[in-house]
From TrEMBL:
<dbReference type="Pfam" id="PF19568">
    <property type="entry name" value="Spore_III_AA"/>
</dbReference>
<keyword id="KW-0547">Nucleotide-binding</keyword>
<dbReference type="InterPro" id="IPR003593">
    <property type="entry name" value="AAA+_ATPase"/>
</dbReference>
<dbReference type="InterPro" id="IPR058670">
    <property type="entry name" value="PTPase_dom"/>
</dbReference>
<keyword id="KW-0934">Plastid</keyword>
<dbReference type="GO" id="GO:0005524">
    <property type="term" value="F:ATP binding"/>
</dbReference>
<feature type="domain" description="AAA+ ATPase">
    <location>
        <begin position="122"/>
        <end position="261"/>
    </location>
</feature>
<dbReference type="Pfam" id="PF25516">
    <property type="entry name" value="PTPase"/>
</dbReference>
<dbReference type="InterPro" id="IPR027417">
    <property type="entry name" value="P-loop_NTPase"/>
</dbReference>
<dbReference type="InterPro" id="IPR045735">
    <property type="entry name" value="Spore_III_AA_AAA+_ATPase"/>
</dbReference>
<keyword id="KW-0067">ATP-binding</keyword>
<protein>
    <recommendedName>
        <fullName>AAA+ ATPase domain-containing protein</fullName>
    </recommendedName>
</protein>
<keyword id="KW-0150">Chloroplast</keyword>
Length: 459
């Protein structure tokens, strides 16, 4: 893996007292960005953490020195340095005067996508998710080079902020033979995406930072035209897209569905559920946990469906080990470990899952249920299907014994609306010191959460 960073071209545009401290810095190869805020000491941010560069505070003259040596700031307050990948972003005061600069180091890292080379060769569209600064732009820059140079595909990059191919009319060599389309205004990115398909016959389109509903719709339109997409968006995982209505179309869109009583009973769910609306624009999703550890969803449709149902899902993790060897492992996640909470302008009446879906009747919860420590529960169920209870218990790996004798039960579980009316059962539970738990709905999801709570609390 080799790195081309042109760091000197960034440093020579900074005030001398900052240059002096960074040129000979022992950790400069791990530099992420330099922050210059008016009236504060300049700060360098490394992978290991931040560090002050000088005792001298930044003045108006220091900011002006840098501003005059870089390109003009666009409407998104970003500028660049000619023929490099570095980015300079500004902060303005209420009079639109610049009082802060963030100088991001841009690097072309050759070989960084060897970990997903097989996915690129599949020809499927790939969505890359990660928090800011994790290296998404560096990854898609290398993807552009590999697809255009090594796989000889016609690649067009929609480069809104000139971060992928640099701030110059001549693209940086880091993108290989890929062509770059610049965007005059940030809000026009979706139009340039469509224009790229209609005018330049690409086999692959690469987009950085898909962030609006119009851009998500444009990506969906491009996918329907049979063009391979590679895009990035902010978010730690797929659940973030489900909870983000403007971007939900990237993974097929989410809709609110009301099931019939029979169908809800067959599925073991509530009548009101969420379902995927359409086929996603991206078939593969990659979550960038850190530069050397990526989570892969090879079938986005399957991953989204499992998340919405609240069932088990298996995720693939790829790590780059010593000698650049790729290690692949699989992890089975329980539904409670990645539970979904809905927030959508179009889904205002959806019932969300939380601890309020079940209740501990504390008046009867005065002793520890018997046998919990041995992971064995004797449960007396009231107005709940035994098969439903067994399915819920099988998901958390505990031994369940259903009993018809209240005196022998470790706990009682039933539907809230029915238990409220059974005064005799409440009296017996109080007499034998048996805790009672109620759920609002007879669903596997709620029962699983309740039983997991019992085990975790070691009641």
């Amino acid at each position: 893996m080799t790195v081309d960073e042109d760091l000197e071209k960034l440093l020579e545009n900074l005030p001398f007292f900052i240059q002096e401290n960074l040129k000979n810095h022992s950790n400069k190869e791990n530099l992420i960005e330099i922050v210059m805020d008016l009236g504060r000491r300049p700060e360098a941010r490394f992978h290991s953490g931040p560090e002050y560069l000088s005792q001298k505070i930044v003045s108006w003259q220091d900011l002006d020195y840098t501003i005059k040596r870089i390109s003009k700031f666009s409407d998104d307050n970003r500028a660049g340095i000619e023929r490099t990948l570095h980015r300079v972003s500004c902060i303005r005061n209420r009079q639109s005067l610049i009082n802060g600069l963030t100088c991001r180091v841009g690097r072309a890292v050759f070989g960084t996508i060897s970990i997903i080379r097989d996915l690129l060769e599949s020809g499927q569209s790939i969505l890359i998710l990660g928090k800011p600064g994790v290296g998404k732009t560096t990854i898609i820059r290398e993807i552009a080079r590999v697809l255009s140079d090594e796989m000889e595909k016609r690649v067009v990059i929609v480069d809104t902020s000139n971060e992928i191919a640099g701030d110059s009319d001549i693209p940086h060599s880091g993108i290989g033979r890929a062509r770059r389309m610049q965007v005059s205004k940030t809000e026009l990115q979706h139009q340039v995406m469509i224009e790229a398909v209609e005018n330049h016959m690409p086999e692959v389109i690469i987009i950085d930072e898909i962030g609006t509903e119009l851009e998500a719709l444009a990506a969906k339109t491009i996918a329907e035209k049979g063009v391979q997409l590679v895009g990035t968006t902010h978010g730690n995982c797929l659940e973030n897209l489900i909870k983000n209505p403007p971007l939900a179309d990237l993974i097929g869109g989410i809709q609110y569905v009301t099931l019939s009583d029979e169908e809800a009973k067959r599925r073991g769910t509530q009548k009101s559920i969420l379902e995927r609306k359409a086929y996603p624009a991206f078939q593969i999703a990659i979550e960038i946990n850190d530069p050397n550890s990526w989570t892969i969803h090879e079938e986005v449709t399957n991953s989204i469906d499992l998340l919405l149902r609240g069932t088990y899902s298996t995720i693939q993790t790829r790590q780059l080990g010593p000698n650049e060897k790729t290690n692949i492992s699989y992890t089975k996640l329980q539904p409670t470990s990645r539970a979904l909470f809905q927030s959508s302008r179009n889904l205002k009446n959806i019932t969300t899952f939380s601890n309020k879906d079940w209740t501990v009747l504390s008046d009867y919860n005065v002793v520890k249920p018997k046998n919990v420590k041995t992971k064995q529960l004797l449960v007396y169920t009231y107005s709940l299907s035994n098969n439903l209870m067994k399915e819920a218990v099988s998901k958390i790996g505990i031994k369940l014994i259903l009993t018809k004798e209240i005196r022998k039960a470790s706990l009682i579980i039933g539907l809230k609306k029915h238990l409220k009316q059974n005064l005799k059962l409440k009296k017996l539970a109080l007499e034998y010191n048996i805790p009672i738990y109620t759920v609002n709905h007879a669903s596997v999801f709620q029962l699983t959460r309740l039983l997991q709570f019992v085990i975790d609390q070691k009641l």
